[in-house]
# Entry
Amino acid sequence: MICLLRASLALVAAMAAPVGAQSLDPAVRAMVEAAARSGDPARIEAVVAVAKETNPRATAEIDAIVKAIADDRAARREAEIRAAGPFDLWKGRIDAGGALQTGNTDTRNLSLAVGAERDGLKWRHRAGFSADVQAVDGRTDQSRLYGTWQSDWRLDDRLYALGRFEYERNLDAGIRRRFVETVGIGWRAIRPAPFTWDLEAGPALRQTKFEDGRNENALAFRAASRFAWDVARATRLTNDTFLFVEEASSLQNTLALSPRLFGALSAGVSFTVLWEEEPAPGLASTSTITRLTLGYAF
# Structure
């Protein structure tokens, strides 16, 4: 509450008192305030650059306005997080798609994915689940279930420690079930909008049961890359890569594009490559999944 009051007083002071030898024109001040309140780094940078170029003796006042509004937003965000319960402030997306073919064969395909994230003051939690199922003449021909939970503890504005749990069932690769537990370190290599790029590394334990009855427990090294690009205000491109290195290594890469249609609805297209160094006998080491879905953001 004290932080919020201080930020509000600073905002009022910045608006009320001109700084430097030149008082900022009201129209320019309104333009700078509107850009600062948008929270869009690219817009703020562009507007501030023009304002400073046309008002060179008011640069300190312009910086004070932007800082005061940013401090006020941060204080309000902190107060909101501190007052929120464990089930509040989750943001995410649900995607669903499917296909039906009748005639010589009755084929049904279903694709479902749910992803959610909660960003706190120190903790960030991410949860995800996806299912891809194909049934031919009433019999499940292929299926993949994949669930994850990851918790990140921020060490500074770029570095974080992580703990992660995964579950996978992939009949196409001969995997009846696989559990993975990971700890590690993450680094936000690229931060300013419209790009973010996280790199992660650490040890992992994997327990795999194959369709042929074999069981495999292994210590692995996990490396991950998460890249996101807001191509436009309503379109996002992502590329996520997860690599496990052990005696039977594996790789997963997903490239996805999600343009917004209207409101909370968006389209989705993604392409996933799955690779197993030692698949079950008779199965290919590489498989792919292509999804065309309709998504809802919450």
Observations:
- The longest strand covers residues 215-232.
- The helical segments are 2-16, 26-38, 41-54, 59-83.
